[in-house]
Amino acid sequence: MDGLVKTFDDTVAVRGVSLDVRRHELFALLGSSGSGKSTLLRMLAGFEEPSSGRIWLDGEDITALPPYRRPVNMMFQSYALFPHMSVEANIAFGLRQEGVARREIRERVMEALALVQMADYARRRPHQLSGGQQQRVALARSLVKRPKLLLLDEPMSALDKQIRQKTQIELVRILEQVGVTCIMVTHDQEEAMTMAGRLAVMSDGRIVQHGTPYEVYAVPNSRFVAGFLGTTNLFTGVITVDEADHVRIESPALARPLHVNHGVSEALGMQVHVSIRPEDIEVLRTPPEGEVNWAQGVVSHVAWLGGTASYQVRLASGQAVIASVPARSLAHAEAPGMQDEVFLSWSSDAATVLSS
Amino acid sequence: MRAWLRGWHLPAGRTLAIVPPFVWLVLVLLLPFVLVFKISLADLRFGIPPYTDLAVLKDETLTLVLNLRGYALLFSDSLYLSTYLNSVRMALVTTVICALIGYPMAYVIARAHPRVRNMLLLAVILPFWTSLLLRVYAWVGLLRNDGLINKALLALGLISEPLEMYRTDFAVYVGLVYAYLPFFILPLYASLVRLDMRLLEAAYDLGARPWRAFLGITLPQSMPGVTAGAMLVFIPAVGEYVIPEMLGGADTLMMGRVMWTEFFNNADWPMAAAVTCVMVLLLLVPLVLFQYAQMRQLDRGGRGGRGGVRRPGAGRRA
Q1: Which of A36, A135, A121 is nearest to A78 (CA)?
Q2: Could A119 and B316 be called an inter-chain contact, meaning their C-beta atoms sit closer than 8 Å?
Q3: In this complex, do A74 and B305 lie within 8 Å of one another by their Cβ atoms?
Q4: Shortest CA gap B244–chain A (Å)
Q5: What is the ipTM score, two decimals?
Q6: Which chain A residues contact residue B206 at CB under 8 A?
Q7: CA B278 from chain center: how many Å?
């Protein structure tokens, strides 16, 4: 994708997106609604014509090709299975357009059905299937033509929460087995992080950051990305010490300075934001040693999430900090409860400094 | 007592909801038809009413006289048979022409921008604001030998003498198609506008060219609309009276005209009633069969699904 722009009448949906997706990669476009991710996907499928920019697939410029001539197939958000056709006919539809021999169509349809473990349902109509089964049929239909690029539009949005995670892993397994290049669009950060090899966070028609899920999660480049991918605690402050190997930041929200053990490009005295993930914050009963990287507060809420407990601690400055504590560590010591005075501590490599 | 009341009341509530339409159907459909059927079995007589009673009580004997003169004549006189056939044929041709003209129109309206769409729909409905009689009369003015069309063609030098259109079957077709086209367009439009555009996108995505996508997706998905439209055109067209009377020639045989002649010119009510009864049967039987076939198809689909859920291996064995 090279400098893609799409404008609708008077609104710009996608502003200059350039992106390389590698062969056999599962790439996720992550963004909230209106971020332009769906428009981008529709341009890749050929349903929308880019206002400017080019789309290259395998060295070939496909920007001007109509959808029916692109080696690209899509699994639609609500599957868009043809209601008047059986499962078998749905999957065979694409092959029939190509004039594939009847015998080969049958073989490939059966192969695709076996791949998604739906061979027993070949003669059903879509409305006789459960949501998960419909999704499998939709997947088989979009894979049977062996596309160079597979597009997944919010693949899990029509499924119940309970079966989502299992389905995500299953879907990745099938895609790896087939070895297809795949771009998926989702607004669910957990889904993107579970499934994708790399992802791009989109906002306001632009790609804000891209990389592996771990990179983007651990080193977000903006407050937006830090907040969008998982939960985070943000402190706004001013750089008071700026050395090559560490910086010190004073934040009005914290009584003690923040010590970050990596250098930053921002200058001394500049206002920056510091992101600290909840799982990097320890909840203690006694004050930690040292003069930096800790705070004192009162527990205002505790939420048990099974494996972890999420503590909301209100600091003296009024800012609430979320700390995620493993349930196992709570079992040993006496767990702090509501209204208890606690100390929050984090290491100097836990914090990420963000300029925007 | 209360339990009894409740037990009685619950189903009554549901029954009550069906009562008004049921009473309505009995009053306006079944009852008149029974009366017409009764008249069809009576004999002609002079007086008011111009037919005999079926049951006569005389000397403590109830005599039921069923007169089959009308039906006998219907099946012996080839005029009636050919009129039936001709009516059905003309209605069929009208339906086909309405489908050929109406489908593209409905399609364009359904695909048009919402603002334009309402204008186009209004244009389809607009003719209903004037009486049918008036509109058919306007066609007389257009189709006559000295009518607008012939005058225009003569003036342009395309023809040297007027085309014979008025009082021909051609004129009747023009009138029928003109009058019934909206009845085809409206239900079809309703089903086309509901069509899920993502299905079409999916078809394109899977490599279907626009024409193939139309044949494979749009057309089958809009079949309920086509069927509804075809019914709304075909059924009234078979019994149409005004249009063949005003535009047709003396040899344009249609049931409506025959009925009219029997009722008003010959004052032969039993005969007219017999003609009507046979026509209703002629229309009803195919309709019921059609409906039955559709119900069975739906039923089979549903049952296949339920049965299949119980035995997941069914597909493999099939």
Answers
A1: A135
A2: yes
A3: no
A4: 40
A5: 0.81
A6: 68, 73, 93-94, 97, 141-142, 145
A7: 16
SS3 at position A231: coil
Residue in chain A closest to B315 (alpha carbons) equals A120
DSSP string, B30-70: IHHHHHHHHHHTS-B-SSSSSB--SEEEETTEEEE----HH
Say if residues A353 and A249 touch (Cβ distance below 8 Å).
yes
- With contacts defined as CB-CB under 8 Å, which chain B residues touch A97? 206-209, 212
pLDDT of amino acid B185: 95
Closest CA to A129 of A97, A158, A162, A168: A158
> By percentage, how much of chain A surpasses pLDDT 70?
95
Q: If you average pLDDT over residues A283-289, what whole number do you get? A: 85
CB atoms within 10 A of CB A47: 18
| pLDDT tens readout for residues A79-125 | 999 999 999 999 999 999 998 999 999 999 999 999 999 999 999 99
Alpha-carbon distance of A113 to B72, in angstroms, equals 63
Q: What is the pLDDT of residues B161-186, one digit of tens each?
A: 888 889 999 999 999 999 999 999 99
Q: Does B299 touch chain A (CB under 8 A)?
A: no
Residue B12 pLDDT level (bands cut at 50, 70, 90): low
Chain B positions touching A81 (Cβ under 8 A) are 202
Is the preceding omega at residue B49 within 30 degrees of 0, hence cis?
Answer: yes
A334 token code pair: 């006496």
- Give the whole-number percent of chain A exceeding pLDDT 90: 28
Provide the pLDDT confidence category of residue B313 given band limits of 50, 70 and 90.
very low
Starting at the edge strand that comes first in sequence, how are the strands of the sheet with A233-242 ordered?
Answer: A258-260, A247-250, A233-242, A271-276, A352-354
Long-range contacts (CB closer than 8 Å, 24 or more residues apart) made by B128-132:
B128/B182, B132/B179, B132/B242
Mean pLDDT, chain A, whole residue set: 87
Q: Contacts of residue B210 in chain A, CB cutoff 8 Å?
A: 68
**Is A73 within 8 Å of B203 when comparing Cβ atoms?**
no
- Write the residue in B201, B206, B318 that is nearest to A47 by C-beta: B201
- Chain B's closest residue to A66, CA to CA, is B204
Which residues touch A152 (CB under 8 Å, ≥6 apart)? A74, A75, A182, A183, A184, A185
In Å, how far is B224's CA from the nearest CA of chain A? 12
The yes-or-no verdict on residue B22 having pLDDT over 80 is yes
- Whole-number Cα distances in Å, A169 to A200, A213, A351, B177: 20, 15, 31, 59
Separation between Cα atoms, residue A62 and residue B299, nearest integer Å? 46
* pLDDT > 70 fraction of chain B, expressed in percent and rounded: 89
Q: According to the model, what pLDDT value does residue A61 have?
A: 87
Q: Which residue of B has its CA nearest to A138?
A: B202
Task: Using an 8 Å CB-CB cutoff, list residues of chain A that contact chain B.
Answer: 45-47, 66-69, 72-74, 76, 78, 80-84, 93-94, 97-98, 119-125, 127-128, 141-142, 145
For B162, half-sphere exposure in the C-beta direction (CA atoms, 13 angstrom radius) is: 13
Strand partners, A54: A2
pLDDT(B114) > 50: yes
Among B198, B199, B206, most A C-beta atoms within 10 A, so best to mutate, is B206
B-chain residues near A100 (CB < 8 A): none
